[in-house]
Amino acid sequence: MFGTLRTLFTGANARAEEQLRDTFSIELIDQKIRESEASLKAAKHTLASLIQRQRAEMRQIENLETRISDLLSRAKEALEGDREDLAQTAAQAVAEMENELTVRSQTLERLERRILQLRQSVETANRRIIDLKQGAMAARATKREQDIQRRLNKHLGGDSPMEEAEALIARVMEQDDPFEQGEILREIDGDLGHATVADDLADAGFGKRSGSTASDVLNRLKAKE
Prior knowledge:
Layout: H1 2-23, H2 25-80, H3 84-156, H4 161-174, H5 178-193, H6 197-203, H7 214-224
Helix pairs in contact: 2-3
């Protein structure tokens, strides 16, 4: 039983995490890109430091090679001048500098290998970040389209504002016209009070109408001409 409950809780947590990641997918993408850019920046600083050390080692090597060449030349002159003691001192200094030169050359080789590897990693990371930013732009546009489509589907289905508006319009159009209703009521009242009987007889030529009509007005105007 407890195993089943644990499995259910695990599944519920996984679904909740997936839903959370889907909801904030754009924010998560942007955060991961920022983290990648921070790592790339740190790698660039490390690369710059290695290149700086490489250049320093190269200067030291060049300086050693110059000093070694100078001392060898001087030692040779000392030997030619029968100053073997001075030549011996120069030879000892040359030997120490050659040993230092060997160590620095090995250090320079290691630095060059590390620089080459790190430079390739930086270039690869930089290209991937560019691709990630382009992908993020596409994802942002797709997410916006999906949100718009979801809102549109919500409006088109169920009790949407569109359907509510359509129902209100239909209700207004189906309501009785109050003006027409008033006219009908007056007709009904006239019929009930026999108010139109006299006018009907007057129209047939029996007696006068109870009120003036448009025909009466036109007849008076014609009589004045």
